[in-house]
TrEMBL record:
Pfam families: Epimerase_2 (PF02350). Keywords: Isomerase. NCBIfam families: wecB. PANTHER family: UDP-N-ACETYLGLUCOSAMINE 2-EPIMERASE. This is UDP-N-acetylglucosamine 2-epimerase (non-hydrolyzing). It is an enzyme of class 5 (isomerase). Belongs to the UDP-N-acetylglucosamine 2-epimerase family. Residues 25-362 form the UDP-N-acetylglucosamine 2-epimerase domain. Its EC number is 5.1.3.14.
């Protein structure tokens, strides 16, 4: 029987990290031929991460130009996907999460009547514009996809309330935990010279910021909170890997470039980033993936958003919503540092076996023997 052709549409760093375990798991199966379409939505960041996992795309759409609107980006991705899939039609299209690349991949699958699988399905804030445009992207992908790989039971419940049939939803855990464990098992030291020298005794705080809704004033408030923290605690060192977007980078550099014990870094290779998380006492971030990674490592997270589609981290005591207000961010970090959190790896988002569960479902979907066992948080 011919191999089942499975196309993965991705374009950002988190998509590479979260889909790599699935691509690699399918590569180990003789039934499947997985391949990657890279939209180029995060060109420099994504390309570095491909090499970490030993992957390379079959197609590169190279869609990004400076200061393009969501209208233009969406149309360029769709046009590129049409060209690829009309000439190289897969049996299945896989998308992940809530990016514009993922939405376009799902929409292309619908237009071409190709089955679509959605990894990390069912996350919701129930706030149309928070995060923007991700919340509506994932809602719309939910209407277009044929298979829904929900990371948690709560995600499944969200999909069921939206009318998705139960037999199309599979609780697998989040594939980011697979990637995290695999990388930490292979990389035990820092490659970045600043991290190798400066991550030492004392209190380590890692900060990230990139959300569109936080651009401008929100990110400035995060930076000002960092200034306050190093004044309040002389034992604190803050490591801030910067997103390449100038709307993020310029604001952070303006506020923090010369502040002692604040280290502004270019985007880090994934092994260095997850090792930095593992060494942190507190993380401050607006990233969904960082919430999942930190929880798996038992590191508390101050979420610089008003909502989260991952309420499990709040419920297990490892996260707090602080918004993007300087004072609330500082207070939340100080609370974690002063009260302390017993480091416990929270098994709320996955156990490192999500990719294998997805493979078993795909085997069954295409008529092969497969054994799927649902992920149960613990």
């Amino acid at each position: 029987m011919p191999e089942i052709s499975v196309a993965f549409v991705l374009g950002t760093r988190p998509e590479v990290v979260k889909l790599a375990p699935v691509v690699l798991a399918l590569q180990r199966r003789r039934e499947f031929l997985p391949w990657i379409v890279h939209t180029g939505q995060h060109r420099e960041m994504a390309e570095t991460f491909f090499s970490v996992f030993g992957l390379s795309p079959r197609y590169d759409l190279q869609v990004m130009v400076e200061q393009q609107s969501l209208f233009y980006l969406t149309s360029r991705i769709l046009e590129g996907l049409e060209r690829v899939f009309r000439s190289d039609r897969p049996d299945l299209i896989v998308v992940q999460g809530d990016t514009t690349s993922a939405f376009c991949g799902a929409l292309a699958s619908f237009y071409l009547r190709i089955p679509c699988a959605h990894v990390e399905a069912g996350l919701r804030t129930f706030a149309k514009y928070s995060p923007f445009p991700e919340e509506m992207n994932r809602v719309l992908i939910g209407r277009l996809a044929d298979l829904h790989f929900a990371p948690t039971p709560r995600s499944r419940e969200n999909l069921l309330r939206e009318g998705i049939p139960n037999d199309r939803i599979f609780v697998t855990g989040n594939t980011v935990v697979d990637a995290l464990f695999a990388i930490l098992g292979r990389h035990t030291t820092f490659e970045h010279p600043v991290l190798a020298q400066e991550v030492q005794d004392g209190v380590t705080i890692t900060v990230t910021a990139h959300r569109r809704e936080n651009w401008g004033k929100g990110i400035a408030e995060v930076a000002l909170a960092v200034r306050d923290l190093v004044v309040l605690r002389e034992d604190v060192r803050v490591f801030f890997p910067l997103h390449p977007n100038p709307l993020v980078r310029e604001v952070v550099e303006r506020e923090l470039v010369s502040i002692p014990r604040v280290f502004l870094l270019d985007a880090l290779p994934y092994p260095d980033f997850v090792r930095l998380l593992a060494k942190s006492h507190v993380v401050v971030s607006d990233s969904g993936g960082v919430q999942e990674e930190a929880a798996a490592l038992g590191i508390p997270v101050v979420v610089t958003r008003d909502t989260t589609e991952r309420p499990e981290i709040i419920e297990c005591g490892l996260g707090v919503l602080a918004g993007c207000q300087r004072e609330s961010i500082v207070q939340a970090v100080m609370d974690f540092l002063e009260k302390g959190v017993a480091q416990r790896k929270a098994r709320v988002f996955g156990d490192g076996r999500a990719a294998e569960r997805i493979v078993q479902v795909l085997l069954q979907f295409f008529g092969f023997p497969g054994v799927y066992e649902e992920f149960t948080p613990g």
